[in-house]
Fold this sequence. Notes:
By secondary structure, the chain is an alpha/beta fold. The protein is built from eleven helices and ten strands. The strands form two sheets. An eight-stranded mixed sheet has the order 1-4-5-6-7-8-9-10. Strands 2-3 form a two-stranded antiparallel sheet. The two termini are 27 Å apart.
Amino acid sequence: xxxxxxxxxxxxxxxxxxxxxxxxxxxxxxxxxxxxxxxxxxxxxxxxxxxxxxxxxxxxxxxxxxxxxxxxxxxxxxxxxxxxxxxxxxxxxxxxxxxxxxxxxxxxxxxxxxxxxxxxxxxxxxxxxxxxxxxxxxxxxxxxxxxxxxxxxxxxxxxxxxxxxxxxxxxxxxxxxxxxxxxxxxxxxxxxxxxxxxxxxxxxxxxxxxxxxxxxxxxxxxxxxxxxxxxxxxxxxxxxxxxxxxxxxxxxxxxxxxxxxxxxxxxxxxxxxxxxxxxxxxxxxxxx
Length: 288
């Protein structure tokens, strides 16, 4: 049913993971090795429909579906419409369908096409912004500019699709942390997503960025420096209705709140942790 390692957002832990693509069409980011062992391809539609049929027979009570792998939004419209209709017919209790999507995927579809996907049952797109700095986006080979990131977010908003955007603390290293924080806030303000998830840089083997660190080309931020970067990011955020989360396993300090309502509280919690760093997670616990 599944090919290779399967990844999904933490919030999709109880979802039926439906793999329709294998790997990631971009697969060039310097910090990521999630799909390096896979050659990207789209699974035959008939195979996916058979998987849905078999799963619905065993688990008809499914309420949430996450469509994988790395950038399933790349699927052609006819393919998407067929699986969304089939999911709706197969799972009577279905409440939402979500997927990863790159900025290129979003911008590659017209606004009407995105609205059609929304009407057919697609509820939310998870998109990795990582950083709003053009120089860093180029360095990490993200495959999109800050302007394209913002345009993709605005297009999802116009289509009525919710967006959950990921940012990586520390991805600029010690030399670019201020630019990373300020520029990322600028792009997030333009996107105005419903959810922002803040991860902290934590690299696996066989990633080009790890080689840069080992060779001394990039200096990793300390826990205190990561908090100061997060503080600067939050200070510059101006979002109208957003759930902010920095409680991933990789984060030194768990933060969670609504923006703008809880902005002051979140900044106070960071101040407290900077004064008492015993609150911070150890490096060993970040890898659990």
